[in-house]
Design a protein that fits this description.
By secondary structure, this protein is an alpha/beta fold. It is built from 10 helices and 7 strands.
């Protein structure tokens, strides 16, 4: 099992190499222009590739780990700055809003220039009969009522939440589904962050959430499921099953950077420090056009 210490040690090889090159060649203590930022990104990508080729390295000493952590903290503001400038991001909590992880999400928005477009905190488990009763007579609910169609209902709601525009299902079910609603339904989202604070669900609610995650993932905007490193009931497996990217350490600098990169258009996958992070700690760097300049 790869724990946080292992991944920090692995990242050390990347960031220590960058310390020499960047501090001498660029001087990050001074103003950082676009060309220097591009250079920094290129160097990170280069050393990430080298790290992949030497993944069998077994250990890095404590001083290197400390230096790597210090360097990540020093360079994160440069790498995240304005990467999501002007982007409007929807936030979905499955369960109650918890301030610890909400603070981490708000922090990455602030660091990257993104803004929260809307927030929905879903009540789980869902009340199927109540939802069916609310949808009775709603043309947009054709084929979506009843226990057997609960996954498709979740998918349709996920697409409405990401795409905006006409949202008849959310207009009808908003009060029944969400105990915390902030922001309008109509504007389209440039990205979606999903957080599950509730325990794993079963039965109809589990199928509903699978559909919801899939609907978010099917939209054009990037969708990322996130959690903290100490999450009592990890949700990354459920996110991956539905086709969502995931980050399992959003409470860390590396996790926030991974989330920013995914929302900026980096390659989808499962990232972080746990066994669920099958694609490593950080995604590959998106192109400047995908990142919005």
């Amino acid at each position: 099992m790869f724990d946080l210490r292992y991944h920090v040690a692995s990242l050390a090889a990347v960031f220590l190499a960058l310390i020499i090159g960047i501090l001498v060649g660029v001087g990050i203590s001074g103003p950082v222009d676009n060309q220097k930022t591009k250079f920094l990104e290129a160097q990170v990508a280069k050393y990430q590739r080298q790290l992949d080729q030497t993944a069998s390295q077994s250990s890095v000493n404590a001083r290197e780990e400390q230096a790597a952590l210090a360097y990540i903290n020093e360079t994160y503001p440069v790498l995240a700055r304005n990467r999501l400038r002007g982007k409007q991001i929807a936030v979905v909590f499955v369960g109650p809003v918890k301030e610890g992880i909400r603070s981490s999400v708000n922090r990455l928005f602030l660091d990257s220039g993104a803004q929260q477009l809307r927030l929905r905190a879903l009540n789980v488990p869902i009340e199927g009969r109540q939802l069916d009763a609310s949808l009775r007579g709603q043309p947009a609910a054709a084929g979506l009522r009843g226990r057997k169609n609960v996954e498709e209902l979740g998918r349709a709601l996920g697409q409405e939440l990401a795409l905006g525009g006409d949202t008849p299902l959310w207009d009808t079910l908003g009060e029944a589904l969400a105990n915390d609603r902030q922001g309008p339904n109509k504007p389209p989202a440039d990205g979606v962050v999903v957080v599950r604070t509730a325990d794993p669900q079963r039965g109809a609610t589990s199928r509903f959430l699978l559909g919801l995650y899939s609907g978010l993932g099917d939209a054009a905007a990037p969708a990322v499921g996130v959690e903290q490193t100490d999450a009592a009931a990890p949700a990354t497996k459920a996110f991956a099953q539905a086709g969502l990217s995931s980050v399992d350490d959003v409470d860390t600098v590396v996790g926030r950077l991974a989330t920013v990169l995914l929302l900026a258009g980096a390659s989808t996958g499962q990232y972080g420090v746990k066994d669920s992070a099958t694609n490593g700690a950080l995604p590959p760097w998106p192109t400047r056009s995908a990142a919005g300049g």
